[in-house]
Write the structure tokens for this entry.
Amino acid sequence: MAYSEKVIDHAENPRNVGTLDKEDPNVGTGLVGAPACGDVMRLQIRVNEQGVIEDAKFKTFGCGSAIASSSLATEWMKGKRIEEAETIKNSDIVNELNLPPVKIHCSVLAEDAIKSAIADYRKKQADRRAAAK
Amino acid sequence: MPVQLPIFMDNHSTTPLDPRVLDAMVPYFTQKFGNAASRSHIFGWTAEEAVDYSREIIAKMIGAQSEKEIVFTSGASESDNLALKGVAEFYKDKGNHIITTQIEHKAVLDTCKRLEKEGFEVTYLGVGKDGLVSPDDVKNAMTDKTILVSVMLANNEIGTVQPLEAIGKLTRERGVLLHTDAVQGIGKTPFDVQKMNVDLASLTAHKLYGPKGVGALYVRRSKPRVRIVAQMDGGGHERGMRSGTLNVPGIVGFGKACSILMEEGKAENERIFALRERLRTKLMGALDEVYVNGSMEHRLPGNLNISFNFVEGEAMMMAIKDVAVSSGSACTSASLEPSYVLRALGVGDELAHSSIRFGLGRFNTPEEVDYVADLVIGKVKHLRDMSPLYEMHKEGIDLKSVQWAAH
């Protein structure tokens, strides 16, 4: 299968590979997928006091399209407010990367990872507020 | 000497044509273009003579008793279809049971599935973790209804060489026919239809540095005389077993490719084995969590099927895009299922997704092996740095204990 140039670019030069401290209350972590299915994505965000995503990192086990989808997701999330980041759709990723039908599940997984990381951040914040009361 | 890119290390999929084979073929496209079935003029006789010469070489190579036992086809898929359907149709009054294995090529498996729809019963034998079929399993699966056992000589993904001699002894004792898809093994591992009691064997030229589009089916003519029903109707070529004008240049190339292997095969296989071991020891010496799939002992000299844990196979192939290999990863198949062969071995899905098949061949060099080994080692490390699974493994997390959401 031939890959789009954008997929190749992200796969060869992935943006924002790395790890944030998952114990940090301002960090939200999303871990989605399964090794047996051939793709696992971990997406992490650090959110500042203003609710803006200051930093985003990922690590992905998966094909080139999965790596590219998660790399793109981190790029798009950085600097956005979490409410904005939440609106990123898998179809946006498909369009940007020109993913063929057989690779659409990679973009779905990336959307899941975004949602999961945001949910984790919100849960941590809620837990912290509850503990403070 | 610097290596030339891209590098071809996928010699199980096909092989480049040996220039000597091409030289032998060329006259049969232009001056000696006759139809081998033309009995009335010199053009036909010349073509027929060339075809018969190839027939003799191929018969000799596999230990057949007569060149009349070689039926030319368009390739091994056709040979597999002809063998299984042809035997099933001829012997259906004798029995309706066929035995094969879970790791056969699709040309055998899908043919069996079709025969099941037509009322035949098929037993698909499993294999051990080593990728080998147990002769005892074959013995226990045979019933009074069994007409045919089909077990490949060597597997196309993991290169394991099956115990055909032991299986052939059992099928002969029971009076059951034995077919083998010998495509991957011929010329690379010992194969003798007499010694192994093989009754039908599928062969193809393009895995032996011959041309694509030409193959053969060996059909035993004595002790026992095997009968098949032709699956292609027409002019009654190939003793009525396969109609259609013969691909004379292809057949000439097939014969030439076999004669080269008969002369040079032994030295070549030793050389390819040394290259394979050079690649394997380099990779395994430099990387942790690397697993070879299938038996190392009973294996084709040029095959290395290896899983780099925590690295997905398609991402790996993309990272080494100047090197042609293949993978058992789901992402490389249309079905999104990982390799059924690796599954049959009991290799976990995650390791199946991480498998890469290197197929070394005649034209690979030590320099290429060194280049590929260094490249792969670097890319595996790079991809593991990007893999959440490797990070978790390094933290001591048992990945099997994690609740993954299958998707």
